[in-house]
Amino acid sequence: MDRAIKKCAVIGAGVMGATIAAQLANVGIDTILLDIVLPELTDDDKKRGLTKESKAFRNKLAQNGLNGALKSKPASFYIPEDAKLITIGNLEDNLAWLSDAEWIIEVVVERLDIKKSVFEKIETVLKPGTIITSNTSGIPARAMCEDRTEAFRSHFAITHFFNPPRYMKLLEIVRGPDTLPEVIEILSETCEKVLGKGIVYGKDTPNFVANRIGIFGLLYSMQAMIDLGLSIEAVDEMTGPVIGHPKSASFRTADLVGLDTIVHVANNVYEGVPDDEKREMFTPPEFIQKMIEKNMLGSKTNLGFYKKTKDKEGKKAILSLDYKTLEHTPQEKVKLASLETAKNISGTSAKIKSLFFAQDVGGQFTFRTLTETLIYSAKRIPEIADNIVNVDNAMKWGFAWKMGPFETWDTLGVGQSVAKMKEAGYQIPVWIQEMLESGKESFYKREAGTLYSYDLASKDYEEVPVKPGIILLPSLKDREKMVAGNKGASLIDIGDGVACLEFHTKMNAMGDDIIAMVVKSADIVSNDFQGLVIANHANNFSAGANLPLILFTAQEEEWDELEWMVKAFQDSLMKLKYLDKPVVAAPAGMALGGGCEICMASDRVRFAAETYMGLVEAGVGLVPAGGGTKELLLRNTEHLFEVQKGGLYPKQIELMPFVARAFETIAMAKVATSGPEAVKLGYLRPTDKMTVNRDYLIEDAKNTILAMNMEGYQQPRPRDDIRVAGENTFAMIKLGLWSMHESGYITEHDVTVSTKVGYVLCGGDVLADTKVSEQYLLDLEREAFVSLSGDPKTQARIQHMLNTGKPLRN
User: How far apart (Å, rounded) are the C-alpha atoms in residues 253 and 222?
Assistant: First the structure.
């Protein structure tokens, strides 16, 4: 793509418009956010002294939208400072601003007449070549293009973002009747590479791909619930993680989306597809209409299928809806034999298969809902999309399913499941029967590291395209590119003289296997490669230390063993840090504790935008001891130059405020909620770079290695000149902790843990401005870690975290 989009405009500052603008700003695109001018002043406006000519009044909707995006949870901005790239205005005073935009996104209310009115205004100021798209969730592109000029029509398309735009990967692109191919190319490249989206190319049909199938599945689940006499909570248990769907499952998802929105989407499909064989399924059950009449719309009205309340003791409780009475009652424990069996099986694929072929009511529900959804999906090709890959990706990226419909069908065994479906009286799509009759038993197959999918047109398997710049580690393993490995990690040749160290333990927790492979990989790379990338495809880069092992070792009072474990981890990361070849970590998702420390030991970090990084050890009563405390101290103080005798400045720069910043970050176990925030907290350096689309992360990290070598990489040297703050600063930290404890802000054990953190950061029992080595600080870290491990209160914190996944403040 030769054309880079540098300036955008978003019209419509509601939730979607404002958060789309936020994502554009997140990736560095200057963005204009416009909305209408309200017709009348409110009483509040008048109290503030506003008039109809006041800028604050005229830009009120856009300002409210921006304010909402800044306050949204989860956060819409990577860091609040990104909002500075958004300029607010209104369609009356600032319409001319649109002539500067290279891409205009319409995000107004879902009414064709209003959208056409907006397009008419846009066209009066449109400069040649500007791309215009609509974020509609279901209005046809052909209808929106009516009465527009050829220049408008040729540059118009639909770009359907999913909410929230920062986090949901799916973007459906639908071309209009006259859209130029180069417009689609620019949009897809920009949205994929710059905005980080996964592109699905849909047809100009009602609700496109994901919502067409997703809403069908949701509504059918409601019908099956009624038919089988199940409860709301039972359906959510069976349509959540046990089948690879999100925890929000069916009805929690409905509450989040809003019942009014779901009914709008369903009505849109019903009106737009008179020939759909399942058209009547898009008529929601009667109880849904009653809920809407009672304003039980879900989260937006704080009342839907679930209701948050407090019990008699004041504890939070969540009630579920009895859809027969529309009363909320305490949730009942779901008791279904098939569900319990599935939960105890390892792996999502095996869980789904177990439920699908079970005979009890849970099995009947799963069989019916999956069968209907799978067959409906199969019959929508090529109506809504050209191939099964687009459909599967739409459901994975838009509804957060682990597997799309056809991947799920493969998991069940196509032949075996089709036989059961036929036995139950279902009609199987002709193309699937033909596929099976030709000897092809699955929708996908993998050969020698290459993935193929069944193509309806050719009636044969075709290679699933992998875009240049996407490195898939499993594919490389299939192609015998693995250099070394054990149960915890693998070293893989990713080409151009670069190797990749991949973790694959549970949650990628650091243990003996990973430590051993770090050491072995360093030796191999030193001799045989030009550099090392540390990356993986798991949801989380690494959740940190192996807490069960630490707790067990501490409870057994195996102190020498525990010290050896910590020392081995420290030594492995120091080996990485001072390797004679460049090391680039490429984290995504959680990079906590030891996962954060391995990034901090690397020469550079190429981080995914959605990287959640932190030194969280204090939350379980420990201190970072893999070099994390040392590294955060260095990152907060390394920019402070040393004063020379006879220079302009008579004194050294005071270390206290910089040590205090590192102390607060570690003691409060701060976790960055984005890659850019990790830079602000000091976990990453400003020279570390971001990749928004994680699919390209490993390639970007590899290219960083190659660039470092082209620049002339120089092996770093261990530090023995680290200036520390010493006893006086440590005394001030202890005084601050005493004050916070006396005021009731922190517990006694918080004081104990934080005192250890402060002791390490200040360099122990030394005078201010003493110079120490890295190894000296590592020894302090290790002593603090081992001593805290023996504290019963720390052990209680670790046990509570393992049991509940939440920190204990004891």
Answer: 13
Q: What is the pLDDT of residues 650-707, one digit of tens each?
A: 567 889 999 999 999 999 999 999 999 999 999 999 999 999 999 999 999 999 999 9
Note the pLDDT tens digit of each residue in 153-190: 999 999 999 999 999 999 999 999 999 999 999 999 99
The answer for residues whose C-beta is within 8 angstroms of residue 650's C-beta and 6 or more apart is: 643
Quote the CA–CA distance of 442 and 388 in Å, as a whole number.
Answer: 12
What is the length of the chain? 810
CATH class of 468-616+671-705: alpha beta
Tokens (6 digits) for 65: 């939208």
pTM, two decimals, is: 0.94
> How far is C-alpha 715 from the geometric centre of its chain's CA atoms?
35
Task: Determine the Cα–Cα distance for residues 94 and 100; give it in Å rounded to an integer.
Answer: 11
- Which residue in 600, 454, 468, 477 sits closest to 537, CA to CA? 477
**CA pseudo-torsion sign 234, 239, 242, 243:** positive
Per-position b or e across 291-322, b if 16+ CB within 10 A of its CB:
bbeeebbbebeebbbbbeeeeeeeeeeebbbe
pLDDT band at 649 (very low <50, low <70, confident <90, very high): low
Helix, strand and coil content of the chain, in percent to the nearest 5, comes to 50, 15, 35
Residue 542, SS3 per DSSP: strand
Helix or strand or coil: residue 426?
A: coil
Assign 569 to helix, strand or coil: helix
Q: Which residue has the tokens 């949901």?
A: 168
Tokens describing residue 294: 């009672």
User: What is the structure's pLDDT at 651?
Assistant: 65
Which residues make Cβ contacts (< 8 Å) with residue 64, sequence separation at least 6? 13
Which strand (E) or helix (H) includes residue 589? strand 589-592
- Give yes or no for residue 70 having a pLDDT over 70: yes
| Residues forming beta bridges with residue 173, ordered by sequence position | 159, 201
**Residue carrying structure tokens 């304010």:** 67
What DSSP letter does each residue of 68-112 carry, written as one string? HHHH-SS-SSSSGGGGGGEEEEETTTSGGGGGG-SEEEE---S-H
Q: What is the CATH number of domain 7-201?
A: 3.40.50.720
d(CA 515, CA 601): 13
Q: Are 698 and 472 in contact (CB under 8 A)?
A: no
Burial class (CB in 10 A: 0-12, 13-18, 19+), 109: exposed
Query: In angstroms, what is the C-alpha Rg of the chain?
Result: 29
Q: If you write DSSP's letter for every residue of 327-370 in order, what string do you get?
A: EEEEPPPP--HHHHHHHTSSSHHHHHHHHHT--SHHHHHHHHHH
- Encode 686-734 in three state secondary structure: CCCEEECCHHHHHHHHHHHHHHHHHHCCCCCCCCCCEECCHHHHHHHHH
Residues of the chain with CATH 1.10.1040.50: 210-305+338-427
Phi, psi dihedral angles at 274 (to 5 degrees): -60, -20
Assigned fold of 210-305+338-427: N-(1-d-carboxylethyl)-l-norvaline Dehydrogenase; domain 2 (1.10.1040)
Q: What token pair was written down for 190?
A: 């920009």
The CATH 3.40.50.720 portion of the chain extends over 7-201
Within the chain, all domains assigned CATH 3.90.226.10 are found at: 468-616+671-705
Using an 8 Å Cβ cutoff, are 304 and 287 in contact?
Answer: no
